[in-house]
Amino acid sequence: MPRIIYIDASDNQFEADVEVGSNVMEGAVDNMIDGILGECGGVMSCATCHCYVDENWLGKLPPMSEQEEDMLDMAIEPKDNSRLSCQIEVTEELDGLVVRMPKSQY
């Protein structure tokens, strides 16, 4: 099972084994990791699962959809490496993926 590394706004690191086929948001919520809220349940209507993907991993993710780009416009403090964690499907290739949570989601 791939391990995802979540780093909060205070640089605390949490690791979680996340099932292949689920998404990074579900991994955080299922493991009670603060900072990824996922208020809409992963249907891309709230941007409360906004995260910053470590630069080394950006090229390993599929490109974001136009709908995800539009939703990220609603996020507080978006950056070039912003993604919605509900849209990052966990695969074996993402073992070790590092995401950071924004201060605005605490």
Description:
This protein is an alpha+beta fold. It has a single domain (3-105), classed as Roll (Ubiquitin-like (UB roll)). 13% of the residues lie in helices and 19% in strands. It contains 2 helices and 5 strands; from the N terminus they run E-E-H-E-H-E-E. It has helices at 24-30, 66-72, and strands at residues 3-7, 13-17, 50-53, 82-84, 98-100. The protein has a 5-stranded mixed beta sheet with strand order 2-1-5-3-4. A hairpin with a 5-residue loop joins strand 1 (3-7) and strand 2. The longest helix is centred in the N-terminal third of the chain and has 7 residues, at 24-30. The mean pLDDT is 95. Belongs to the adrenodoxin/putidaredoxin family. Its cofactor is [2Fe-2S] cluster. Pfam families: Fer2. This is Ferredoxin, 2Fe-2S.
Q: How do the strands and helices of this protein lay out in sequence?
A:
Layout: E1 3-7, E2 13-17, H1 24-30, E3 50-53, H2 66-72, E4 82-84, E5 98-100
Parallel strand pairs: 1-5
Antiparallel strand pairs: 1-2, 3-4, 3-5
Summarize the structure.
This is Ferredoxin, 2Fe-2S. Belongs to the adrenodoxin/putidaredoxin family. The protein has helices at residues 24-30, 66-72, and strands at 3-7, 13-17, 50-53, 82-84, 98-100.
| DSSP E strands, number | 5
CATH architecture: Roll
In the CATH scheme, what's the topology name? Ubiquitin-like (UB roll)
State the assembly state of the protein chains. Answer: single chain
* Unreliable stretches: none
The rounded Rg comes to: 12 Å
Strand order of the largest sheet: 2-1-5-3-4
Helix content: 10-25%
Assign an overall shape.
globular
Which structural class matches the secondary elements? alpha+beta
